[in-house]
Amino acid sequence: xxxxxxxxxxxxxxxxxxxxxxxxxxxxxxxxxxxxxxxxxxxxxxxxxxxxxxxxxxxxxxxxxxxxxxxxxxxxxxxxxxxxxxxxxxxxxxxx
Amino acid sequence: xxxxxxxxxxxxxxxxxxxxxxxxxxxxxxxxxxxxxxxxxxxxxxxxxxxxxxxxxxxxxxxxxxxxxxxxxxxxxxxxxxxxxxxxxxxxxxxxxxxxxxxxxxxxxxxxxxxxxxxxxxxxxxxxxxxxxxxxxxxxxxxxxxxxxxxxxxxxxxxxxxxxxxxxxxxxxxxxxxxxxxxxxxxxxxxxxxxxxxxxxxxxxxxxxxxxxxxxxxxxxxxxxxxxxxxxxxxxxxxxxxxxxxxxxxxxxxxxxxxxxxxxxxxxxxxxxxxxxxxxxxxxxxxxxxxxxxxxxxxxxxxxxxxxxxxxxxxxxxxxxxxxxxxxxxxxxxxxxxxxxxxxxxxxxxxxxxxxxxxxxxxxxxxxxxxxxxxxxxxxxxxxxxxxxxxxxxxxxxxxxxxxxxxxxxxxxxxxxxxxxxxxxxxxxxxxxxxxxxxxxxxxxxxxxxxxxxxxxxxxxxxxxxxxxxxxxxxxxxxxxxxx
Lengths: 96, 484
What we know:
The complex is a heterodimer of chains A (96) and B (484).
Chain A: H1 5-14, H2 21-38, H3 72-80, E1 85-86, E2 89-90
Antiparallel strand pairs in A: 1-2
Chain B: H1 9-17, H2 23-41, E1 44-47, H3 49-64, E2 76-80, H4 107-115, E3 118-123, E4 143-144, E5 147-151, H5 157-164, E6 170-175, H6 181-187, E7 190-193, E8 213-218, H7 221-231, E9 260-264, H8 274-289, E10 293-297, H9 305-320, H10 339-350, H11 353-366, H12 372-395, E11 400-404, H13 420-424, H14 431-436, E12 440-448, E13 451-459, H15 464-477
Parallel strand pairs in B: 2-3, 2-6, 9-10, 9-11
Antiparallel strand pairs in B: 1-3, 4-5, 6-8, 7-8, 7-12, 11-13, 12-13
Helix pairs in contact in B: 2-3, 5-6, 7-15, 9-11, 9-12
């Protein structure tokens, strides 16, 4: 089962990926195969089954509402790696 | 001073504190082995000679001052290159992070630094830990030290190969669907995936957050206990962490007559290499002779675990990897005119093929119109898979499940590179453990044509100590593990 070219292009666009024509062709076949494989889940009855969204039995975790120690050294190292910036602000190209 | 790199962590520790040799000697022995072998094996992506020699000097000073309590003081280890060490490059095996400098230490690194461990460098992996062979690394595959024509497994292939080839005394990997256990099995070393919540993931590059765990890869069971003890514990920076009632300890005997092991019948069906089955059967027989009760059990939904995993994992990964956008750090292609051009150009150039494949798959199963059919369905099936395990541990009073770690031994490099589904099938025995959040270990138990075979031991939640104890019993059946 192949997935249509249009669908692959649509999902690539949503994921902000630009695909080459060869890549699209390959993914049509490969993703088709994987989706065909995972379809077997349809056979399982899950009407009254709760969803499991985590690895453990998760509960909400709280911490006191106060700011952490300033980690200036870390901040500096993070900002050093920004491709384009103005002072401490990250610069981006125009949105539209 | 020859071959100090061949020692286990415990052996090295005992001789370090007797001052038979120094931490510097030990580090130099490892660096020597890396220099000799890494060009062929490609286990390490980066090695920082200066940094680790400086760490060794500090360790030697501390040992001289009588600070000898920590098993890890002066012990050289390797770290998978998706875990941050302050000041080290951290690539995740991806071009998009080729020059990325870690701005801080992951929690596990902080803890290891405190214990006195020495970091030799960073090890190769499938890009963003996505893969089962390390062939998806942007920096070339890691080769299996037992036969260089074969894969080391993955995604923690570099960490497993570095331990198997005696380039380090132990290493850390990360496991989302088998990425510690499978390469450990392929390389003939011990690999332990802890219970979800036992080890903090702060500073680990997230792949699938409800599945990821960091764990040790070592030469022996004792060494796995030592590394796990050093990195475990609740951390306020990882909200999924759990307060541990019992900490990890060195395994110290087990009354085999009180133990019941379960053999899940779904794991011993077609697709499993007959020779692997025979080796596992041999281990089970020995346990039985020593008084262990053996029960055939059933995990009916485990048949669906792989399908469930290949929905949940890409869904979470596609979400996690949206942060690599060319704006804040990493590769940034800035030739286009708009903000959106930067996103498209940076991501398309920076991500490799498997990563793009999983991002698109994840976007697909999360998208409007398909969400209920795939993602929601998979989350419900995950509940059923978890219940299966609960049933055998709680109601049937099984202490451990024994299974093969993988259905086959390592495959040849390039053999499966164009067949993603067949590559995914190699995870069939490991993924259900991540979906359920359980702890499991792969232990080397034999060889087929010179390629190692791993036994998987699955325990109940937070029963790592019990897993370590039975693993030690099995390790002693076999004598030394089939080290290189």
